[in-house]
Amino acid sequence: MNKSASASTxxxxxxxxxxxxxxxxxxxxxxxxxTDPQRxxxxxxxxxxxxxxxxxxxxxxxxxxxxxxxRSTAASREAAIKxxxxxxxxxxxxx
Length: 95
Fold this sequence. Notes:
The structure is a single chain. By secondary structure, this protein is α+β, with helices and mostly antiparallel strands. The protein is built from three helices and four strands, in the order βββαβαα. It has a single domain (2-94), classed as GIY-YIG endonuclease (3-Layer(aba) Sandwich). The protein has helices at 37-46, 71-82, 86-94, and strands at residues 2-5, 17-24, 29-34, 59-69. Strands 1-4-2-3 form a four-stranded mixed β-sheet. The longest helix is centred in the last third of the chain and has 12 residues, at 71-82.
């Protein structure tokens, strides 16, 4: 899994937000934000409290993770990643 640090770092663990990408069983990529990446992946994989995106597919693995955001900057980064093409997302994962 690729990990990248952001320029904006929170002083509290609770306020630490992550932006992540999960590879689905159909090889698509889902992007989201969370304060606990392991818990969130488990939620996606269990089908309970996970994203509706995974109703027709399974969450296979977390393939990308960025840390060091607050809630607002994480949401902004998530939106920016969602606008990327698949090729650009794969390039980001490969770094």
